[in-house]
Specification:
single chain; alpha/beta; Spore Coat Polysaccharide Biosynthesis Protein SpsA, Chain A; two-stranded antiparallel ribbon; 11 helices; binds 1-O-phosphono-alpha-D-glucopyranose
Amino acid sequence: MIIKKAVIPAAGFGTRFLPTTKAMPKEMINIVDRPAIQYVVEEAVDSGIEEILIIISRNKEMIINHFDETPELDQVLSNKDDKSLLKISKDLASKVKIYYVRQGDAKGLGHAIYCAKGFANNEPFAVLLPDDIIDSDVPVIKQLIESYERHEGTILGVQPVPKADLSKYGIVAGEKIENDDMLVSGMIEKPKIEEAPSDYAILGRYILNPSIFEMIEKTPPGKGGEIQLTDAILLQKDVENVYASVFSGVRYDTGDKLGYLKATVNFAMKHPTLSDPFKRYLEKVDLD
Ligand code: G1P
């Protein structure tokens, strides 16, 4: 089964970035030269995804506008000698079809994913959480698709995290099988340190088998009174094998101010024209 569809939940309030997010979606905050959500859309496209559903909520129209076609702007840019800006502006729109659905009420990640039931149309699909931006040689969703091709079961993208961070994530337990894959035996959403079954955290990338929708229907509210995707995957594990795959790449939590700053520095260091002047600037910064 080839994975061609991806879902990006972008309905959260972005309270960690108030007051910026009072009028502006957190997914539109700029990281060097692109809004945060564009990094995950590019990761999906570079992984072979052809159709994306973005789950939005009120006040997220800026995301729709960002990925829309812009004929007036294109006209202005095509009159310039240098066509590079035209390419930057148009590039992504031609490579992927993006759809939107509104999550009317913020009832949790599981509930947001349930909004994709019609879009998935009984096929497996990728999920990318846009707070998690991952710098990797091979796009992470491509790595998970390769794991899906080996197992044909739900795949969770995981990495080990420090003990102090275990209570921020869905934590999985499992036994190593082959490559960097694990057969999942349990998982807990945001456990206390002493309850955590391992130090492997789900870091915002999934391939989900479509039976997940039936499981979400059966999932009662969990942590924070929300319908948790982790709890639905736990139910799915009781009827079919669920796997975790340890992906390669450096992940930034751009929903957090420090993580956002780290991502900005990392991507600025790798930018084709900004990298050298930025490094020279950093060398001169007085750290005292
Ligand atoms: C969500 C998931 C959690 C996962 C995390 C990754 O939590 O519920 O299992 O580990 O994303 O970033 P959130 O950060 O949205 O509260």
